[in-house]
Amino acid sequence: xxxxxxxxxxxxxxxxxxxxxxxxxxxxxxxxxxxxxxxxxxxxxxxxxxxxxxxxxxxxxxxxxxxxxxxxxxxxxxxxxxxxxxxxxxxxxxxxxxxxxxxxxxxxxxxxxxxxxxxxxxxxxxxxxxxxxxxxxxxxxxxxxxxxxxxxxxxxxxxxxxxxxxxxxxxxxxxxxxxxxxxxxxxxxxxxxxxxxxxxxxxxxxxxxxxxxxxxxxxxxxxxxxxxxxxxxxxxxxxxxxxxxxxxxxxxxxxxxxxxxxxxxxxxxxxxxxxxxxxxxxxxxxx
Amino acid sequence: xxxxxxxxxxxxxxxxxxxxxxxxxxxxxxxxxxxxxxxxxxxxxxxxxxxxxxxxxxxxxxxxxxxxxxxxxxxxxxxxxxxxxxxxxxxxxxxxxxxxxxxxxxxxxxxxxxxxxxxxxxxxxxxxxxxxxxxxxxxxxxx
Amino acid sequence: xxxxxxxxxxxxxxxxxxxxxxxxxxxxxxxxxxxxxxxxxxxxxxxxxxxxxxxxxxxxxxxxxxxxxxxxxxxxxxxxxxxxxxxxxxxxxxxxxxxxxxxxxxxxxxxxxxxxxxxxxxxxxxxxxxxxxxxxxxxxxxxxxxxxxxxxxxxxxxxxxxxxxxxxxxxxxxxxxxxxxxxxxxxxxxxxxxxxxxxxxxxxxxxxxxxxxxxxxxxxxxxxxxxxxxxxxxxxxxxxxxxxxxxxxxxxxxxxxxxxxxxxxxxxxxxxxxxxxxxxxxxxxxxxxxxxxxxxxxxxxxxxxxxxxxxxxxxxxxxxxxxxxxxxxxxxxxxxxxxxxxxxxxxxxxxxxxxxxxxxxxxxxxxxxxxxxxxxxxxxxxxxxxxxxxxxxxxxxxxxxxxxxxxxxxxxxxxxxxxxxxxxxxxxxxxxxxxxxxxxxxxxxxxxxxxxxxxxxxxxxxxxxxxxxxxxxxxxxxxxxxxxxxxxxxxxxxxxxxxxxxxxxxxxxxxxxxxxxxxxxxxxxxxxxxxxxxxxxxxxxxxxxxxxxxxxxxxxxxxxxxxxxxxxxxxxxxxxxxxxxxxxxxxxxxxxxxxxxxxxxxxxxxxxxxxxxxxxxxxxxxxxxxxxxxxxxxxxxxxxxxxxxxxxx
Amino acid sequence: xxxxxxxxxxxxxxxxxxxxxxxxxxxxxxxxxxxxxxxxxxxxxxxxxxxxxxxxxxxxxxxxxxxxxxxxxxxxxxxxxxxxxxxxxxxxxxxxxxxxxxxxxxxxxxxxxxxxxxxxxxxxxxxxxxxxxxxxxxxxxxxxxxxxxxxxxxxxxxxxxxxxxxxxxxxxxxxxxxxxxxxxxxxxxxxxxxxxxxxxxxxxxxxxxxxxxxxxxxxxxxxxxxxxxxxxxxxxxxxxxxxxxxxxxxxxxxxxxxxxxxxxxxxxxxxxxxxxxxxxxxxxxxxxxxxxxxxxxxxxxxxxxxxxxxxxxxxxxxxxxxxxxxxxxxxxxxxxxxxxxxxxxxxxxxxxxxxxxxxxxxxxxxxxxxxxxxxxxxxxxxxxxxxxxxxx
Lengths: 287, 143, 649, 392
Prior knowledge:
- The structure holds four protein chains of four kinds.
- Chain A is an alpha/beta fold.
- Chain A has helices spanning 4-20, 82-93, 122-125, 156-160, 163-175, 182-186, 211-224, 234-238, 245-260; strands spanning 26-31, 40-44, 76-80, 102-106, 137-138.
- In chain A, strands 2-1-3-4-5 form a five-stranded mixed beta sheet.
- Chain A is globular, with a radius of gyration of 19 Å.
- Chain B contains four helices and four strands, in the order βαβαβαβα.
- In chain B, α1 links the parallel β1 (7-12) and β2 (34-39).
- In chain B, strands 2-1-3-4 form a four-stranded parallel beta sheet, with helices on both faces.
- Chain B has helices at residues 16-25, 47-55, 76-94, 111-128, and strands at residues 7-12, 34-39, 60-65, 101-105.
- Chain B is α/β, with parallel strands linked by helices.
- In chain C, 28% of the residues lie in helices and 24% in strands.
- Chain C is built from 18 helices and 34 strands.
- Chain C has a five-stranded parallel beta sheet, with helices on one face.
- The C-D interface holds C 341-342, 387, 391-395, 427, 452-457, 459, 471-475, 478, 480, 482 and D 27-31, 33-35, 39-40, 45, 47-48, 75-80, 298, 302-303.
């Protein structure tokens, strides 16, 4: 079991040090919520804020989501679990944030839990990783020896469905959508302003929460995130009607990895796969 | 009455559209279910065009571009290949029949290939029957 | 609300045979915003055109749909028609019901139904079209020519003689190229230097030519009419302004390098001019072989130079120039034949490559024009092997075009300069050119032996050490030939410069699989490229001989002139633009554009498109997640509307 | 008699239909015939064969049997013509018409009746093993595919035993096929009898399937190429020289004996070298032997010369002076080598013949690299193995 207490202590210590030394202007991490199960994303900007920092198994939020609120040049320390670190890498690739502006406080963790259901979500969310891909400071010891779960294992069941069954499954799920857009709000990669779905020119889809518009919104969003989704699972946890969006994103991520030989947010020097190509890409991918 | 599918074609100006013209000049007959939209390059194709076409009632969508390496814009179709591959995977995972969406590289000199592909694709769509999954039933729901 | 006119063409019976044209026109009149719909036998004829023009005025049309043949056929014609009638040309829509409907079916029901669907799509799209205006830009009147071989020299002189300013950029320390290595040229056997050196000198003297030797293009920005080019002047370690070309330095220099100009047959000094007629006649120091640079001691050249021209501190410098057009004439290399072990090049000293032989004949070459081999002897029997690496799927599939003729020239020169027996091993003799067949006949009469068969192996003779055995089948008799010779001459494939793909990337030129630059059209635009304002000439496009190269160079000069002789030019209107309000700053457009048209404005956090660079492919628009990029004439709304219209019927 | 001929395009079409599609590509440059090892010594001319095929000329039957399918010409051909396919197709078209040379009739007959080319009794296929080695079953990792030649040809059974011993020494889990398998069919396919080839193939495929064969080891490069390229699926099959080289590299097998400074030259079998691209593994085996100097002949690796045994050549009679194996043995002698090593039972047979007819058996011996290596481990397989069996 990850020693959450130790991480929290280290987090406070490092946050204090960085703020004190003036190395960063803000620390993006987790703060106390209305109870232990509901920590909040928190931006500590003064030493006085440091005491409010927490870390426990419910700290799922992908803090990379909040990086883009600050202009380039703002020095930011960010608490990054495995998935957060991948989001950071992806955002650096896309030049939304600059690596040199960041102090990444890596958090190796397993046993993270969904605050709604209390189930352990490691296999669903971390892209098969427990340790951050990139960090400057480590707030806990690197995790080794823990069972590695393939991030795509959960897909097997859905891939095995026949197409009619799968269509029925997704149709039912997407029909539930109330178009609250919590998914895109939670997503660290959904930074478009305006989002295509809010536009009138062109009007890609109906805005009412009905089947055709829902379908268009979600399918297009999957495409926009193809090769970019870093599998944090925040969209699904944010969804008030529990649409398992993470499954679809995982499937697209798996296909992209197989077709293009790279996973999102793993290497700073990669280019996002869909705005890149290799001459030797095979036509087989179109079959 | 037998099922006459509606098939949307999106063809790049330099290769496939010209190839389609060549099929005409050489009087190669093929089924009339395909309606072609001309774009300058296969890379112009926004994946949402394809999702939308299925919503608007297309029973099949056929995209045609220059052979990789021969793109009029050097590398346009190399990007298109990746983007359309992902489009295909998304449609498949949503539960649409994989055979309804197809990408073919047809050069300006391949009039006969164009005719053959249309022939084959139309037969395939007829086999699959009407596309009802994504199609919007009531007209007013259209955007 | 727009006012659309639909004009359905019968094209005689070409369309009317399988489409009910009057029914189509009637159908058109029921479609939204259509105010007039007509059908006519030949819409492209004068009365047809007048009909459209009259209707535009009479019905105050603001959109015109011509339902006829392919847009690739008559879009231009009808654009002119509506423009003359006062409508913006981009408000025209063509519906292709001939090539893509009437000619590909025999069923009139099917044909008519499909034509209706296509027309409906066109109406939906036409309603959303906007007038577009072509932009006008100033044109810089200078030209850059890259490559100082015969192609580049010729193009530069032609342009300079019209009064245009030309920058001639050459990466070697002299101009002249491969032609300056040759002794004689086929089929007339005139002396290469006699016809080339006056031109080289003319380049140096010409007031309109800036000669930039020992230079490489390092960056190309801008677009047709306005290229911004950065050129790297490699350090020569000799101040050419001071040097008076006395060449005392080259005599004293102890450093030895490989004489590139002599194909490595001999050594040259570290401070050197490549050959006696080099232009400019001023030396450079080859850093890799200079004793001072290697060991930190020497500076003999500095000591003997009375003009204090030696400058060991010199560094690469950069110059920026602006030009309106570019001619790329970077030439060729010969294939390295060492990997073809069966011919023994590099293993047996008696095996020579064609360019080495050119140097042996040349009176300024390593043997002062005498045919003596590496062992100092004159050959008694010589085999010339054609098609080495050319016409060969394992290497280069193309025919190198000049080898047959220069092999014949070699045979003649061997006969003239030695008493050797000369054998040609060939597959086909390709002598298509003015005076070429006659030259072939002349060489046959000079008693050169022709053996039709590709050589399979060159081996060392076991009986006569030092001699070579050439093995081939004489396919005419079917006999296996084992021929003892002293010298074997290979005619290797002509291939692009090793860096042609990099040059291609620099100038945005496509290359074929071997690296030859692709012309815009193989027949009708052989010198233009897909990049506006950049032209190609000479062997960098494909193997060719000197007359063809010179003809291309003149042609490329004329093409460049059509651009730089204008003060202003119009740019294509169907480019992309950014709506900054919708741009989310993801920079996808910047990453994908093959032409570098979009750039990111970091201050504003949005992309901007340089429309002069944009070719209108629309790639950026499709990767833009927020539809902030508008691909003019192919906007998301227009395409979606067309799809909707097509799917309705 | 009139000398005029008319192209007989029906015949050319028949050749194309039998798989000689590549006929159309040839532009008669003579690279193949210049390269072909037969051109200097026989009247066989591969370019002419293709030419006759292109125009369907009469007289083709006079020299269509000359090719030993060594693939040298195919590798050099500037037009990428699959010349061996043309040869096979021509032979198929003509042998279908009954034009099989006398010397090949027994060979084809034996294959047809007994499933092997050596007129051996099918039931005695595994006699060489003297029941010392196990039959393959599903639990085993490797099937040691024994080529007919190493089962029946007395000289080559030694190679079979040597291989089996080394497999045991390396403690691999392996077995040999039961006696109901057939010849892989390589030679008969090249001789043009495609129908018989299909029959043999199906028998073997059936055996592979019923016994769930996953990995195979063979000593014959001819079997190797056939399973890899002609049996449809890409079989996981390795030539024993590759297996041996990696066992040595992993130090699972170590030579003991020092050969005391003998010279060994290595002949690349066409089907192992040019056909399969394996040049280094057998050389690595030789280089691992203490006290052995590897010397190369002038023509080696990609340029290696054929022994003449491929394409049915093993069963055809050649006149003295028209034998490639004689030339090759002379080349080997010129290196000063005491041992001519190779890695193919066909090459061994051809060279054994030549060494005897040239009367040089006191100067040079032919050995498979496997045999050489076994020798270095000081295991003697020439003793009767009966005793050992009893002890077990």
